[in-house]
Write a structure and sequence with these properties.
Radius of gyration: 20 Å
CATH architecture of the largest domain: 3-Layer(aba) Sandwich
Number of domains: 2
Oligomer: single chain
Length: 281
């Protein structure tokens, strides 16, 4: 693992030296918009909405996504993220600029987890943020039904590890307070709820510590009227965006219906979300 890790760093360093002169003279975007979100919140749909606008170069989870694909511990993960952002992601973003595009938009739930601090430094006053929020029980329900659970091998690569010492919420302590007699059966669902609350408190702390950055907040339900959403963003961002001529159909949305392997009733999902929230106090 260490040899693989070091070899990748050396390769990326050499590649960066070669392309640095090109990056310096390459045309730049006027604005860089990233999304703070949990995932399973409509971020893919948001990206598709903006793909219909010529001035915006819109991407959903583009390479490199910046997930923990090497299963590194927290210390080495931070170092690896630094290298990947500056040697791969930033050059990729810069080189993605096409003629007539002035705005770069990336919808990627790894932004807050992996590279928000690097993006702040790289893009400075050109950075804009959209905080996209979906109700906790709907996010957790979606994650639970496609079996993408924090704390598993997959979950620790893409979401958050509930055992990390830096977490704001201690899952074990919260879980012990829940009186649901079937809580062991639905432990995976409670882990998904924990993830939502952990992400949202991190989002609030980011907003509190970065008041100089323009941060816009929208709910997933706002995506149902894409034309109204674009008009709102145009006013808030003070940018010239053309009128959107069509809205997305349901088949254009990333519902992952074919990936669902189990289900939880909406009423039960809501009641367990309330029980989890009560245990947070």
């Amino acid at each position: 693992m260490k040899l693989r890790y070091i070899s990748k760093i050396l390769f990326l360093s050499i590649l960066h030296i070669i392309i640095s002169p090109i990056l310096f003279f390459w045309p730049k975007y006027e604005s860089y918009i990233f999304v703070i979100t949990t995932g399973r919140s409509g971020s893919g749909t948001l990206s598709k909405i903006f793909k219909n606008i010529e001035l915006v170069n819109s991407f959903h989870e583009p390479y490199p996504i910046m997930n923990n694909s090497l299963a590194l511990n927290q210390k080495f993960l931070q170092l690896w993220n630094w290298y990947v952002f500056y040697l791969v992601k930033l050059p990729t973003i810069i080189l993605s600029k096409k003629k007539n595009t002035t705005i770069y938009l990336e919808t990627n739930h790894l932004f807050l987890k992996s590279f928000s601090s690097h993006a702040k430094f790289a893009f400075k006053n050109k950075l804009r943020i959209i905080h996209l929020i979906r109700e906790s029980h709907l996010v957790a329900k979606s994650m639970y039904e496609i079996n993408k659970i924090p704390g598993t091998f997959y979950g620790n690569k893409w979401y958050l590890n509930p055992l990390d010492k830096d977490n704001n919420f201690n899952f074990s302590k919260i879980y012990s307070k829940i009186t649901d007699e079937k809580k062991d059966v639905f432990k995976d669902y409670y882990l998904c709820l924990w993830y939502w609350h952990e992400m949202e408190i991190r989002a609030e702390k980011f907003k509190e510590n970065n008041k100089s950055i323009l941060i816009l907040q929208y709910n997933t339900s706002d995506l149902n009227n894409s034309m109204l959403l674009i008009e709102s963003l145009k006013n808030e961002l003070n940018v010239c965006l053309p009128q959107l001529t069509k809205s997305l159909k349901d088949e254009d949305k990333n519902l992952k219906k074919d990936e669902k392997i189990r289900t939880i009733e909406l009423k039960r999902a809501m009641s367990r979300a309330s029980a989890f929230k009560a245990a947070l106090r």
